[in-house]
Design a protein that fits this description.
The protein has 13 helices and ten strands. It has two domains: 252 residues, Rossmann fold, CATH 3.40.50; 66 residues, Helicase, Ruva Protein, domain 3 (Orthogonal Bundle). It is elongated and about 65 Å long. The chain is an alpha/beta fold. 35% of the residues lie in helices and 15% in strands. Strand 4, helix 5 and strand 5 form a beta-alpha-beta unit. Helix 9 crosses helix 13. The relative contact order is 0.13.
Length: 344
């Protein structure tokens, strides 16, 4: 299960915010530990003021496998299967993700599950601000310290929120609303997190997420595909999504049993129907609960009877003998609208 620190349950209390330079665990005296004399952070700091977001950065701060293991040892953290914790240790993969995210200088990035901070360090020079949501309090507390040691030119660009990304509300996010989602998501909750954030945060215009390869296939599958299903349709309600490339399992610690894939999405307007999103998603869930049955049969319970389902489908100009896997999100929306007209 790949993910930096996925939601494994809401931490006690309300979400907690940390800004770099505030009250964070650090070395004695409240100051972040200094980077080694020969480290990228020292060379970066010596170069002068930080470049503007989007400009070429003289030294890209990264975390290598040894540094990540050392941070884990210091914090007493062992990667959790329950939380889907597999941490990116390859600098080239981090740079690739940041490049494919196509961030603009004014972007406010939302990162879910930053873990030890490998991707965070890559995002900070490329965006105006990064809000990192981390469910693990120990990792959340350590992230600001890590950034201070490896990228001291960017303290003002990071906010860390201790929270469950699958439950966080728009009003709980500090600062400006995010415009882009870039994250390494745990396999078991990847789709719910993406759908929740797209529903909760209308300012999210695009994103790039790393998920299990099979999940990436389901999220981006077109109608008629063998793996087309509920995730495909619901994501299509919000955005156009596409595969953005594979990620081998060898770039993670610990190494997972499966490969990963990148999914890029761009928000678009949902189908123009006068029904709530929840009504459309109810049709989708019913249609795929028995995906091998015709829509007339699969939607019988939802509609009230097979005869009612057939009448609603006909009113929506959808073949009652078709199966859910052949319909796009616009057709599911028409079915929901026809049901609302039949049973106002």
């Amino acid at each position: 299960m790949v993910g930096s620190a996925g939601p494994g349950g809401q931490p006690p209390g309300t979400p907690r915010e940390r800004r770099l330079g505030g009250d964070t665990p650090s070395s004695p005296g409240g100051r972040p530990p200094e980077a080694p004399r020969d480290s990228p952070a020292r060379r970066e700091h010596a170069s002068g003021a930080p470049p503007l977001a989007g400009e070429a950065h003289p030294v890209s701060p990264t975390l290598g496998p040894a540094e990540i293991r050392e941070i884990a040892r210091r914090l007493g953290i062992r990667p959790s299967k329950r939380l889907g914790q597999n941490f990116v240790t390859d600098a080239g993969t981090v740079r690739r993700i940041v490049s494919l995210a196509q961030l603009r200088p004014d972007d406010v990035v939302l990162e879910v599950g930053p873990g030890f901070g490998s991707l965070t360090l890559g995002l900070l020079p490329a965006a105006r601000h990064v809000t990192a949501i981390e469910v693990d309090p120990s990792l959340a507390a350590a992230l600001a310290v890590t950034v201070a040691a490896h990228a001291p030119s960017f303290p003002q660009r990071l906010t860390v929120l201790t929270a469950d990304a699958a439950r966080v509300g728009a009003g709980e996010l500090p600062g400006e609303p995010p415009t882009s989602l870039v994250a390494n998501l745990p396999y078991n909750v990847a789709v719910p997190i993406v759908l929740h954030l797209l529903a909760e945060l209308p300012t999210l215009r695009r994103g790039l997420v790393m998920v299990q390869a099979e999940v990436a296939d389901r999220m981006t599958a077109p109608p008629g595909s063998r793996v087309y299903g509920v995730p495909s349709v619901k994501l299509a309600w919000y955005a156009d999504a596409r595969r953005a490339g594979p990620v081998p399992r060898t770039v993670f610690w610990p190494v997972p049993n499966v490969d990963s894939g990148l999914v890029a999405f761009t928000r678009r307007d949902p189908p123009a129907v006068d029904v709530p999103r929840a009504d459309v998603f109810a049709v989708v869930d019913a249609a795929f609960s028995q995906r091998r049955k015709t829509l007339r049969a699969a939607l019988a319970t939802w509609a009230g009877s097979a005869a009612d389902a057939e009448r609603i489908l006909s009113a929506a100009e959808v073949d009652p003998g078709a199966r859910g896997e052949s319909l796009g999100v616009a057709e599911f929306a028409r079915i929901a609208a026809a049901h609302r007209a039949e049973f106002p």
